[in-house]
Amino acid sequence: KNKNYMLTCPPSKLNKFPNNYSIQIFSIFLESWRQTKGLKKIYWNGFFLIFVAAIVPIYFFLSLSLLLDGMYPTFYLKDFLMDIPHSLFYLTSGISLSHIALQHIRDKNVHYKMALDLDKIWKPLIFFGFIVCLLTFMINLWLIYISTLSANRTAYGFQIIFECIFFTIITIYIFQLAIITMLLILDKNLTQMKSFAICFKAINKHCFKNISLGLFTWFLAIFFTILTLGIGLIWLQPMLSLTHAIQYQRIFNEDDSVI
Question: Which residues contact 41 (CB under 8 A, 6 or more apart)?
Fold first, then answer.
């Protein structure tokens, strides 16, 4: 079995990405579980490093949001501003730790300090962070709006469930697109626009399977977190990053030890 995990297509031909890549959800899940061995300590050290680096921006936006909320309470500025550090932290940890996971499954030496190697992706990171933040803000406003219109509580409950599922799917799609795009930038030194165009086409080639993968891992993480009273996060969080890394491999037809 080949353990080199090298891309079969050179960077110059990445715009002609393989059309027949396979997203096998259960296979990816099993591979991510197997690859957690030797990654957990590095993963959590990297996560803690990102968290420490994010403390100052979080407190800044918290203070600013509280100030503006007191001045303009009807504009929901507090919710919007609080979504900014949350979205950026969520994306930063996602891409950084997925990049570490990608190098781990390639049997390369990894270190937790790699979590802050973000020089090449800070622009798309801010862009996607703003999109996720705006989407979250729109969801909150929409839920508030429909709650004022609905007189039937049962109908309102079903509507809330439908809206949550719909916006969850959209959020997973955007997050996957962001992760794969920034992994390609870090991995192949491509320009931001070229990476985005390639990944947009690649994700949409098997859009249903890619979103299904995201939904499956998301629901599975919630289920096992509740089942294990939070202890399962020690394994589940690294598995989520490994899932993105393996998904990246499959999209660009890297060899692996499962198929």
Answer: none
